[in-house]
Amino acid sequence: MQKSKKIFVAFGTVFVLLCATPSLHPQVLRKRNAPVTTVPEQKATTRIANEQVVAAPETPPPNAEVESRIFQQPRYMDDRLDWCMKWGTDCGKPVAQAFCNRRRYENATAFEAELVGRSAQTRLMGTDQVCNADNCTTFSFITCSGAIGMERVFGNPTWKDYRLDVCWLGIGYCGKWSADAFCRARGFSESLDSTPDREPSNTPTRAIGNNQICEKGCKGYQQIICK
Fold first, then answer.
1. Model pTM above 0.70
2. Spatial separation of the C-alpha atoms in residues 144 and 147, rounded to whole Å
3. How many CB atoms lie within 10 A of CB 148?
4. Contact, 191 vs 224, CB < 8 A?
5. CA-to-CA distance for 119 and 137, rounded, in angstroms?
6. E strand or H helix at 140, and its extent?
7. Can you tell me whether residue 159 is helix, strand or coil?
8. What is the C-alpha separation between 85 and 124, in angstroms, rounded?
9. From the CB of residue 55, how many other CB atoms can be counted at a distance below 10 Å?
10. Contact 210, 181 (CB under 8 A)
11. Labelling 25: which of 44, 68, 99, 103 has CA 20 to 30 A away?
């Protein structure tokens, strides 16, 4: 009888210890004879103010170029940009395209006209003339896309130790002729856009077509972008 009591007490002690020991594994509900599976780990999420759960944003690559930009009420020099390149011709798309190229973008993807009349003077990009009449039209915005790499952009370009003259022969074939020749000399097909000096100066320039040097009343380029 005494032996039976000792066995009963020992069994009770073991039972109490087993019940008091915390479980080392989470409980998993499963059907009879079904394999035990764990819950897959979920990706980190961010909860915003409206309680919508969204995936955590990816980190943008370093030094990423801005591929598009919207220019509100674009300007040319100190005035609103006129809707036309020349009086009544080359309006809309050609002007928007030239505006984007000059700001180092490949394409003008969207734009909208705005009639300003006499409330704001506009300036024509092609002739540098101004409009201050009742029918003056400008752009409310221009969207540019496709950032141009700096390897194609030449600020204040030079030719044989002088600023590049805007004229290919010094006195003739000015503008695109000279800019195209410069780009071809740099291994490109032609020029995409060129910005000449607004006024002549006494800074010497050299013509790329015949190496003629201009010493007074010379015009060079502020920027050339090559294709």
1. no
2. 8
3. 20
4. yes
5. 11
6. strand 137-147
7. strand
8. 5
9. 9
10. no
11. 44
Instruction: Name the residue among 61, 79, 71, 135 with its Cα closest to residue 97.
Output: 71
**Residue 70: which residues within 8 A CB-CB, separation 6 or more?**
141, 142, 143, 144
Residue 112 to residue 141: CA distance in whole angstroms:
6
pLDDT digits (tens, 9 = 90+) for 182-206: 999 999 999 999 999 999 999 999 9
CA end-to-end distance (rounded Å), the chain: 107
38, two tokens? 């764990």
Name the token pair of 82: 């006129």
Residues of the chain with confidence (pLDDT) below 50: 1-64
The helix/strand count (H/E) of the chain reads as 3, 18
Q: Which amino acid is at 181?
A: A
Q: Which of 177, 153, 154 is nearest to 165 (CA)?
A: 177
Residues in the chain: 227
Task: Write the pLDDT tens digit of every residue in 95-123.
Answer: 999 999 999 999 999 999 999 999 999 99
Quote the strand ranges of 92-136, DSSP E: 105-115, 122-123, 130-131
Give me the pLDDT at residue 97, please.
97
Answer yes or no: are the C-beta atoms of 81 and 138 closer than 8 Å: yes
CB distance 188 to 226 below 8 Å = yes
